[in-house]
Amino acid sequence: MRSVRKAAVWLFLAVERVLTAQIPLLPHYHEESLDSYSHFERNPRQWDLDEPHAVNATANLVFETVNSLLQHWANTRYRIGHTIVPGIVPVGTILYHGALSGPHIPTTPDWVAMEPEHSMVFCSGSVETGCWHVTFAVTRPMKVLYFDGSSAANIPEGTMDTQDLVAWSEMRPEWVDNEEQRIQDLCKWGLKNGVNGLVRMEVNFEIMICNFTSHMEVVSFSNLDSPRLKIDNITDLPDDPNTAHHAFEIMHSTSWRENYP
Ligand SMILES: *[C@@H]1O[C@H](CO)[C@@H](O)[C@H](O)[C@H]1NC(C)=O
Ligand SMILES: *[C@@H]1O[C@H](CO)[C@@H](O)[C@H](O)[C@H]1NC(C)=O
Ligand SMILES: *[C@@H]1O[C@H](CO)[C@@H](O)[C@H](O)[C@H]1NC(C)=O
Where does the record locate the signal sequence feature (predicted)? Predict the structure, then answer.
């Protein structure tokens, strides 16, 4: 115990030495930088870091949001997003789409996933024919907008608010489940403004793609066994071992982004 305390004191002294060794460029740098805050309500000289912030303060929330972008757990715990981030998907990024109608790419706005485990849930076909799954590679830097929070959760508590504002300039709670209208109108706005994708968080991260040919090329089409996930009723157990394995893989791939982008 004593040696721990000794070490702590030694560390403190060492840190203090390092800090005092920092030589500011301006002789009165510290004084001047504090004075420059004098137009604020509270001078930093009077800051009490133990004092809780005002109940209506928001700066801390904005900071926390930025710190948590593209991390699944933080955006699950605080699911109502309030940040819209412009971004670029770099050339070479691989994206996945569970096709509905055979080996074709969508001709209207549709979704891609960042993990194949996620897109395979949307790959549907009969047990006899299997289903089609597409892998894409990004060929030109693709401008996107990212909505933070659980932004693909269709619930009325506010997870859709930032998207509603971009798509419709107002919140439309009556359209909370109207994903078709939402993707059409977000993409109408996007294509007009050079944005080809809207990034959201579902069970994992996804992108609504506005134009499937302008920034991506097909790497492969795969004919897969149709998953038999009963996503309409979560109390049902998957009915074969492959599907049980698949259900596990989705949850596992989601965990890769729990605390890291
Ligand atoms: C925050 O609350 C304080 C105390 O009630 C009030 O004086 C201040 O005007 C409020 N600030 C904002 C931005 O609402
Ligand atoms: C999609 O992109 C292709 C290739 O750049 C272009 O020819 C086509 O007009 C675009 N479609 C829409 C709806 O913008
Ligand atoms: C889901 O399955 C449970 C148990 O079999 C059943 O009681 C319930 O009615 C089902 N719900 C729907 C929406 O089908």
Answer: 1-20
Task: Give the residue ranges of the chain where pLDDT is below 50.
Answer: 1-21, 27
Q: What is the model's pLDDT at position 15?
A: 41
Span from the CA of 198 to the centroid of ligand 3 (angstroms): 34
Q: Are 119 and 249 in contact (CB under 8 A)?
A: no
Task: Quote the pLDDT of residue 188.
Answer: 98
Q: What ranges in the chain are assigned the alpha helix state H?
A: 2-20, 29-35, 59-68, 72-77, 116-119, 161-168, 179-192, 241-255
Per-residue pLDDT tens digits for 156-171: 999 999 999 999 999 9
Q: Atom 6 in ligand 1: which residue has the minimum CA distance? A: 56
Closest Cα to residue 109, out of 214, 222, 226, 202? 214
Closest CA to 222 of 116, 140, 143, 141: 116
> What are the tens digits of pLDDT across the range 111-123?
999 999 999 988 8
Contacts 24+ apart (CB under 8 A), 86-90: 86/143, 86/144, 86/145, 86/146, 86/195, 87/143, 87/144, 87/145, 87/146, 87/199, 88/141, 88/142, 88/143, 88/144, 89/138, 89/141, 89/142, 89/144, 89/197, 89/207, 89/215, 90/138, 90/141
Task: Say which ligand is closest to the CA of 235.
Answer: 3
**Ligand 2 center from residue 88 Cα (angstroms):** 19
Which residues surround ligand 1 with Cβ inside 6 Å?
A: 54, 56
Q: What is the pLDDT of residue 243?
A: 75
Q: Which ligand is nearest to the CA of 232?
A: 3
